[in-house]
Design brief:
The protein is about 40% helix and about 20% strand. By secondary structure, it is an alpha+beta fold. It folds into two domains: about 90 residues, Arc Repressor Mutant, subunit A (Orthogonal Bundle); about 110 residues, 2-Layer Sandwich (Gyrase A, domain 2), CATH 3.30.1360. The longest helix has 16 residues. The protein starts with a helix and ends with a helix.
């Protein structure tokens, strides 16, 4: 969890003024893109749907932390950056998800939160975090006694959705957050925003 717990430092103010126009989930997505594609700043900005100036700030903070290097050919993760991303992905594995009756939009992304079930109260807190990050909502599921349950409901989830979740290797006491939005990126940012907030709460 060490990697996840430090994500907030990348979006803190470094001087009096406004916070950066990106959230912790953008850091996770940026590191994934850099590790997989090594994009230049302009391409990274397009993939993150952020302005180039915002991405310049984001990259500057990642470089200052020793996680990313840049060159004429693009960006790359340093060895420290690869370790950092591995820690985050181990704590919060995620994957795109198809349509499901549990969610409110056509694009969905699920994130598994290791040992997160005990931190969930009603599930609306995760929905609110997703809304704040630009998604249309989030659905929270808890893994308890071998079942996948929505807080406050007794019904288990459909077999298809269960298979998608089980592919991430969940265990007893984990939580699953499904971010929903009109685009895949917004759904992913919403899911990770909710998951990071849950894992770092309390």
């Amino acid at each position: 969890m060490r990697g996840v717990s430090t994500l907030g430092s990348f979006v803190d103010r470094v001087a009096p003024g406004r916070r950066p126009q990106f959230v912790e989930a953008h850091i996770v997505k940026a590191l994934k893109l850099i590790g997989a594609e090594g994009p230049g700043r302009k391409h990274l900005a397009a993939r993150l749907e952020l302005g180039e100036g915002v991405v310049r700030t984001l990259l500057g903070r990642l470089m200052a932390a020793g996680l990313v290097s840049t060159s004429r050919s693009g960006t790359a993760l340093t060895e420290m950056g690869r370790r950092f991303l591995s820690e985050v992905e181990a704590a919060l594995p995620g994957r795109p998800l198809g349509r499901t009756d549990l969610t409110v939009a056509r694009s969905n992304y699920l994130v598994l939160v290791r040992s997160g079930a005990s931190r969930v109260r009603f599930g609306v807190e995760q929905r609110d975090e997703a809304l704040l990050s630009g998604a249309r909502g989030a659905t929270t599921l808890l893994l308890r006694m071998g079942g996948l349950l929505v807080p406050g409901l007794e019904a288990d989830v459909s077999p298809g959705l269960r298979d998608e979740i089980m592919a991430l290797g969940p265990g007893e006491g984990d939580a699953v957050i499904i971010g929903s939005a009109d685009s895949g990126l917004a759904a992913e940012i919403g899911a990770y925003s909710s998951a990071i907030a849950l894992l770092t709460s309390g």
